[in-house]
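Below is just one:
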Amino acid sequence: MTKKSTLDNFEEYDNPVLYDQENEVYKEDVKFIDKWASKTEGLIIDLACGTGRATIPLASKGYNLIGVDLHKGMLNEAKRKTSNLDLQIEWIEQDCSKLDLNVKSNLIYCVGNSFQHFLTNEAQDGLLFSVNKHLETGGTFIFGTRFPNTEELLQPSSEEYWKTYIDSETQNKVDVYTISQYDSINQVQHNTTIRKFINNDEEVVDEVRTNISLRYVFPKEMERILFGNGFEIVSVYKDWNETPISDDSYQMVYVCKKIR
């Protein structure tokens, strides 16, 4: 399969309003970040901030944030949502693996499994170098990524039902299916998401397919790349409720400290 770069792996985000509909229910990571933000002084940086799902509620608590994303459409939606709000947020369009913000922070975070969008070793190192560059020594970097368990990686390559939700605009049902293929050599899973829009008569009135590729990192591999980029792992959890990581995990949540 053709390798995807950060710039062409955006289909899943081309409809920011739909993205919000499907993801705004997730709050656990925001609560977790808030606990650390309450112990942090100064500016906070949200990397791969998207439409501001985490940025906006944290700024609403009085924190001063910079939200960074490469996707113009997602940032425009974030700006629209905050245009009439008195919040301390600066939205910046930049590649998170090549940050140049001219500021330093004591807390940088990256949620929504966005770490998986950095598909190569070089891209991962670029992200971590950028974080290190913008983090004060002793500062905290928090991020989450999916745990590469067998069930996660060996999903069927046929169409598989994922979930159903109600479209907030039409009140119609949306059935979501996925097709996955894991590239073991590059540790990248290629996913197709299929959304079937269903009217009140249970008829499929529209179908939308999007593609996304996601990199998986194993725990020992993560230890090596974090230490190599100047970080110490303070804690690693299986969820945002601080549950210790285990073999049956679906996610890895890292709290790291810049040590050099």
Observations:
- Helices lie at 16-23, 28-37, 55-59, 72-82, 121-134, 150-153, 219-228.
- Residues 47 and 110 are 5 Å apart (CA to CA).
- The chain is about 25% helix and 35% strand.
- The longest helix spans residues 121-134.
